[in-house]
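dumping this here so i dont lose it
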């Protein structure tokens, strides 16, 4: 039975390896991460205790890949999400964003971004801070704010739209 599982997994990767790579490449920032995640999909498929219980192995393969990509994104957000807007390195990165108006000087843009963020409703502002400064997941934010994850996504979307519109007026 072990050989049958290995053969099935190898066939899945032979048949769908390139589309799996493309699928993962669209969901992660760097190509080497997509390659690593594809390898991890292979390993996880080999660890499935009962391959006969899987009705559609191709669909299962991409479900595993999708879950890994989400896991990877959460990990990336946690690593990169804890930002301090008063940190000179963060200020320098914000200053390089062309959408905020190239002719305005850095200090004015940062001051303006802080003002724009303060204009957000309290829960919307809290969701932004928890997501981008503390690297929390949607679920963690939802629990902290006492709302659904859907509402967290809505708050973050509203904040992004608000910030883009207000910051665009600077140019």
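and the seq i came up w/
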């Amino acid at each position: 039975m072990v050989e049958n599982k290995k053969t099935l997994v190898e066939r899945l990767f032979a048949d769908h390896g390139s589309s799996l790579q493309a699928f993962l490449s669209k969901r992660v920032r760097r190509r080497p991460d997509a390659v690593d995640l594809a390898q991890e999909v292979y390993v996880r498929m080999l660890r499935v205790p009962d391959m006969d219980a899987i009705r559609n192995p191709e669909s299962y393969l991409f479900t595993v890949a999708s879950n890994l990509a989400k896991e990877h994104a959460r990990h990336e957000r946690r690593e990169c999400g804890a930002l301090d807007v008063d940190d000179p390195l963060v200020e320098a990165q914000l200053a390089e964003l062309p959408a905020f108006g190239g002719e305005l000087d850095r200090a004015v843009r940062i001051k303006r971004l802080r003002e724009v963020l303060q204009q957000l409703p309290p829960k919307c502002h809290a969701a932004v801070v928890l997501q981008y400064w503390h690297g929390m997941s949607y679920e963690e934010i939802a629990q902290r704010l006492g709302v659904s994850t859907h509402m967290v996504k809505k708050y973050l979307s509203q904040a992004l739209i608000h910030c883009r519109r207000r910051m665009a007026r600077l140019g």
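The CA atoms of residues 139 and 149 lie 6 Å apart.
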